[in-house]
Design brief:
alpha+beta, 11-stranded mixed beta sheet, 4-stranded mixed beta sheet, 20 helices
């Protein structure tokens, strides 16, 4: 099929942290809860080898932020602070990237050259990120067909953003320099569900190396999405796998909306607006709208821009046309709280009289004429309206290429223009790495098991079903499962926990990725030692995600084991309290009474033992 016959096209870039030392020094690749110090820098974009300035870097620079960096004693050195040249590339990180490249059948580059990618948002102290192309032209089998792997790269992670003020962004350098594998697919996915499956497959292959980090933030997905008549949009930094279909679906809807806006404006014959701000402060001196009153009290201004022909597309047609929201996202990048446009007024404390006065002042006579206003300091209001008006003009063309940030509800907001090739130039402080045939042959002869091979082994060795095995491997917990099964003989309980219990917890909003190897091992060790019954595992895991250790949880939940005699007495009391019900139901009362019994025992005995004791108590009552 031709591309035009698809509703959408999507490619993924997956960034996975490696469980090694940092990429260009010997610091530990771990995060710190505390940062110290305050190193201040301003970053400016530089030209590429072709003499061009990257548009994304320029847009970030024009926001005017300064950057403050917190150091961490065990995770920061002079390399991270850009006060010392990078050391030799971490050998374990390079080896892991080569292993993964072979797993996806990619062609490895024979000489690895690191590049500098210009980044002036403050996320790197040097103003650039070091990245290298390791392999190209690979593929994986997923969703019933072959998916192209365009490239496999090795690069360094960025700083962590801690806070943002009006003038500065505060970063912590603990994450800076952690090695990342970047895997870029071809735009071969055609539905939101396919995107999820391909991402899960790549994640399984990454975890198959046994050399990647686990937990929230250690793997991030960038989505590149386009539709016919749309444009390539990059959604950067998605962390929750389950939300991938939502981001894709919502972006397709957004692009379709913008194509429709373009067509409406084209039908009206709308021409690009003059990006000229007009001071209308005097019209709003008595306005009680909070944002306007607050701005005027701080000696700010109210500025306006005319938008001839744009009425009804900024927030119209039952709010399915939302160009105004797109304009507001651009405006907010300079620090204003927002903008007001005529499609949403009167509202927000701005009465009809102010709308009428403004229309008259601006000389707006056509039914499709619109306006946008902003209340802030004179410079911010002007800069915000220039961006908003430019965004309105882009709507005449359709969907502008841009990078967008993910939001928790599966939607996105504007971040910056889509970067181009102008931000790359060679890294002169890191020598090239030769990849020999001998090294590649050694890797090829010692590749780890593929996910499907691990699944088959788990089914054969431990007698669990194929779905359980697949879920365990997807989670990357097959090593832990094997240890629990071999050491404790709890394969059935572990399989049920990793599949069903984890799914139930995730539906309740519990982040199971926060559970470490040691956390889960301690739970099954405690179960084997009869410290609690398996029915208590869901409650224990919930508390463990909250930061408590097993002994603290047992004490908090009152899970101290009871002997059979004590449990029998508790169950007999429950039966006697419901004697009439038991006599009417006979042994049929076992099912209804299991809930109260397990509630009273709170995971102190397992379900089978409770069922046997309940059955005995009912028989005793019935004589």
């Amino acid at each position: 099929m031709s591309e035009e016959k698809y509703e959408m096209m999507c490619g993924i870039e997956i960034h996975q942290q490696l469980d090694t030392k940092k990429l260009f020094c010997n610091c530990d690749s771990s995060l710190s809860e505390e940062g110290s110090g305050d190193i201040y820098r301003r970053l400016r974009p530089t030209t590429s080898e072709m003499g061009e300035v990257d548009r994304a870097a320029l847009a970030q620079f024009l926001r005017g932020y300064g950057y403050r960096y917190q150091s961490c004693p065990c995770e920061t050195c002079l390399v991270e602070l850009d006060e010392e040249p990078p050391h030799e590339v971490n050998a374990d990180a390079m080896e892991t990237t080569l292993i993964f490249s072979e797993l996806v059948n990619a062609s490895v580059i024979d000489e690895i050259q690191f590049m500098r990618k210009i980044v002036v948002d403050g996320s790197n102290t040097s103003g650039f990120q070091r990245t290298s192309l390791i392999a190209v032209d690979g593929s994986i089998e997923a969703i019933g067909r072959k998916i192209g792997i365009l490239s496999v790269c090795l690069e360094e992670d960025a700083c962590r953003k801690i806070d943002t003020t009006d003038s500065d962004i505060i970063w912590r350098t603990d994450r800076l320099g952690i090695p990342l594998i970047e895997v870029a697919t071809a735009p071969d996915m055609r539905t939101p569900e396919e995107v999820l499956e391909v991402a899960a497959r790549i994640g399984s292959l990454l975890r198959a190396t046994k050399r990647v980090k686990r937990g929230i933030g250690t793997i991030r997905e960038d989505l590149n999405i386009s539709i016919p008549e749309g444009a390539r949009i990059e959604i950067k930094g998605v962390q929750e796998l389950r939300l991938l279909p939502d981001f894709v679906s919502n972006e397709v809807k957004r692009q379709k909306m913008l194509v429709r806006v373009r067509d409406i404006l084209k039908e009206r014959g709308v021409q690009p607006v003059a990006v000229e701000t007009i001071d209308v402060t005097d019209l709003f001196k008595t306005c009680e709208a909070k944002i306007i009153a607050s701005a005027l009290k701080a000696n700010g201004k109210v500025l306006a821009v005319k938008l001839p022909g744009f009425a009804g597309v900024m927030n119209g047609d039952n709010k399915t046309l939302r160009l105004g929201s797109e304009m507001a996202q651009y405006a907010r990048t300079v620090g204003v709280k927002g903008i007001f446009h005529s499609d949403e007024l009167p509202n927000y404390g701005i009465e009809q009289e102010y709308v009428d006065s403004l229309r008259q002042f601006l000389g707006m006579t056509g039914e499709n004429d619109a306006f946008v206003i902003c209340a802030a300091s004179a410079k911010k209001a002007n800069d915000a309206l220039v961006l908003a008006a430019n965004r309105a003009n882009q709507a005449l063309i359709g969907v502008p290429e841009e990078t967008r940030d993910p939001l928790p509800d599966g939607t996105t907001k504007y971040s910056r223009p889509l970067p181009g090739a102008a931000r790359m130039y060679p890294e002169t402080d890191v020598p090239p790495t030769r990849i020999t045939e001998a090294r590649l042959n050694r890797i090829k002869n010692n590749l780890p098991e593929f996910p499907e091979q691990i699944e088959a082994r788990l089914v054969k060795t431990y007698g669990i079903n194929a779905q359980q095995a697949k879920q365990i491997v997807r989670q990357g917990r097959d090593d832990l499962f094997c240890q629990i099964a071999d050491e404790f003989g709890l394969s059935a309980v572990a399989a049920t926990t990793f599949q069903n219990t984890f799914q139930e917890l995730e539906h309740e909003g519990v982040d199971t990725d926060l559970l470490t190897y040691d956390d889960l091992y301690s739970v099954f060790a405690g179960l084997k030692a009869n410290k609690f019954a398996k029915e208590a595992i869901p409650a224990i895991l919930k508390e463990m995600v909250g930061g408590l250790d097993l002994e603290q949880i047992i004490k908090k939940l009152g899970l101290s084991a009871v002997d059979a005699g004590e449990a029998a007495a508790i169950i007999e009391k429950i039966v006697n309290e419901r004697a009439d019900f038991v006599r009417s139901k006979g042994l049929g009362a076992i099912g209804p009474l299991m809930g109260p019994v397990m509630g009273a025992l709170r995971g102190k005995i397992d379900g089978k033992q409770a069922n046997d004791l309940l059955s005995a108590a009912i028989k005793k009552l019935l004589g």
